[in-house]
Amino acid sequence: MSDDIERRVLAALEETGLGYELIPCDPELADTTAFCLHYGYPESQSANTIVVASRKPEGRHAACVVLATTRLDVNRQVRSRLGVKKVSFAPPPLTAALTGMLMGGVTAFALPAGLPLWIDARVMEPPWVILGGGSRSLKVKVDPAALTAVGGEVVEGLAVPIG
After folding, report:
1. Which residue from 14, 42, 49, 100 could staple onto 106, CB 3.0 to 4.6 Å apart?
2. Within its chain, how far is the Cα of 20 from the centroid?
3. Fold of 4-161
4. What residue ranges do the domains of the chain occupy?
């Protein structure tokens, strides 16, 4: 691995002591739906790491992991947990500045210290999930327990089913 962020992700995965599989992917296919369709993985076992940012007051952030078949409950759960009046998805430049990762590759592994990591409880149910690998050219297949091993907090109802 030549990319620094990918090396940090690998180190974080190793520290969990749990097994994982690295899956190279075409950067043009890094977005979850395209990745799943092209590589044959179920969306029900694919998770997105979404960075959120407060708007009133500004300056509070968190990373949230939800299954691709769900939608992050930003206006209730996330807003309440951050203790703010307004919150939204962090725009790509802010996500990159906070995590060092590009959209489509953001992962729960190798996040900066102090950035809360919240995991929807549904993510913990399958035997494995696919997450970003820190760049748009890498995905990680891992036991969901790795998310709590890196300090993530499981939150009931962080996301709601789509549809």
Report:
1. 49
2. 16
3. YbaK protein (3.90.960)
4. 4-161
Structure confidence by residue, pLDDT tens digits, 75-117? 999 999 999 999 999 999 999 999 999 988 999 999 999 999 9
> What confidence tens digit (pLDDT) does each residue in 111-149 have?
999 999 999 999 999 999 999 999 999 999 999 999 999
Write down the pLDDT at residue 1.
Answer: 37
Q: 134: number of CA atoms within 13 Å, CB side?
A: 19
DSSP, residue by residue, the chain: ---HHHHHHHHHHHHHT--EEEEE--GGG-SHHHHHHHHT--GGGBEEEEEEEEEETEEEEEEEEEETTEEE-IIIIIHHHHT-SEEEEPPHHHHHHHHS--TTT--STTPPTT--EEEEGGGGSSS-EEEE-SSTTEEEEE-THHHHHTT-EEETTSEEE--
**pTM recorded for the entire structure:** 0.95
